[in-house]
Design a protein that fits this description.
By secondary structure, this protein is an all-alpha fold. It has a domain of 92 residues. It has 5 helices and no strands.
């Protein structure tokens, strides 16, 4: 019995895909709709608005805008008006932009992690392919040794 017949290597379907297609890592931007024109436009428009609102400069501008009405809230001498100004005017305007900035930073970090994981997986795949070649070479040597032992 030849040694090479004791094991038949069958690559995993994901390994085949990776070797044949070389697909890049998935990024957040890859998740945008690619369907009909309306879905693409809505996604494009939402991203444009998010990129505009999601800056610290916009947060600073919103803070300045909110501060315009602060003297009026203070002069009302009404705690409800002051609490209302803080919660409905300042926090909502400013925190909206700050949260979007944070989400953008987190999305970029997720893309970096995804790419690092992808690169690690490709490296491991290449190492495993080398190991398979090494094992096949050993199988050939073992097969020759078995043939010599059987002939003796």
């Amino acid at each position: 019995m030849p040694v090479s017949s004791i094991y038949d290597y069958v690559p995993h379907h994901r390994t085949k895909e990776k070797l044949e297609l070389g697909t890049p890592p998935v990024k957040v931007s890859d998740q945008l709709p690619k369907g009909n024109a309306t879905a693409r436009f809505n996604a494009w428009f939402a991203v444009k608005i998010t990129n505009g609102i999601g800056t610290m400069w916009c947060a600073y501008a919103f803070a300045a805008l909110a501060l315009v009405s602060l003297p009026s809230a203070i002069n009302s001498h009404n705690p409800v008006v002051l609490v209302s100004w803080i919660s409905q005017t300042f926090l909502q305007l400013v925190l909206l932009s700050v949260i979007i900035v944070g989400q953008n930073v987190l999305a970029a970090a997720a893309d970096k992690r995804s790419e690092a994981t992808y690169n690690d997986a490709v490296a491991v795949l290449q190492e495993v392919i080398k190991l398979q070649d090494h094992l096949l070479a050993q199988d050939k040597v073992l097969e020759r040794l078995v043939d010599k032992v059987q002939d003796a």
